[in-house]
Amino acid sequence: MPDNKSLKPTESELEILQVLWDKGNATVREVHENLLTFKDVGYTTTLKLMQIMNEKGLVKRNDSFRTHIYKAAVNKEVTQKYMLNKFVSNLFGGSSSQLVMQALGDGKVTPEELDEIQSMLDQLKKKD
User: Fold this and answer.
1) Are 17 and 79 in contact (CB under 8 A)?
2) Which of 6, 28, 42, 128 sits 20 to 30 Å CA-CA off 114?
3) What is the pTM of this model?
4) How many CB atoms sit inside 10 A of residue 45's CB?
5) Does the keyword Transcription apply (predicted)?
6) Is 24 left (phi over 0), alpha (psi -120 to 50) or beta?
């Protein structure tokens, strides 16, 4: 698994990782067909990206069959945490509270989501 310094997936790589996290294992064709549901991308582009991701250590390829099978080589939660920390650092000056206020400020939060957020806040306060 790549370390945090090399864990810098692009937006397109993240889309492919999401497919692999959801499916577990998949061929290039399966990943490509999934990507086509929300973006216009050529098969050879998907193939090349997945080959690059294999070289970067983001995915693993099983080539013991005629059709190569890919799976994510990076953990979803670790990747999310790394990308979120990078995002908060770059866009919000490292302030998680500014991120949360911006996310909640649009008023599109359901009462159920607010209850869940409150529960999380209560748990965090208990840890102190």
Assistant:
1) yes
2) 128
3) 0.78
4) 13
5) yes
6) left
The whole domain housing 45 covers: 1-94
* One domain, residues 15 and 73: yes
Q: Which two tokens stand for residue 42?
A: 């050529």
Domain count, the chain: 2
Q: Please choose, from the candidates 108, 58, 110, 116, the residue with its C-alpha nearest in 3D space to the C-alpha of residue 83.
A: 58
Same domain, 69 and 108: no
Query: What's phi and psi for 58, nearest 5 deg?
Result: -80, -30
Instruction: State pLDDT tens for residues 33-79.
Output: 999 999 999 999 999 999 999 999 999 999 888 899 999 999 999 99
- 72 and 110 fall within a common domain: no
Q: Which helix (H) or strand (E) holds 25?
A: strand 25-26
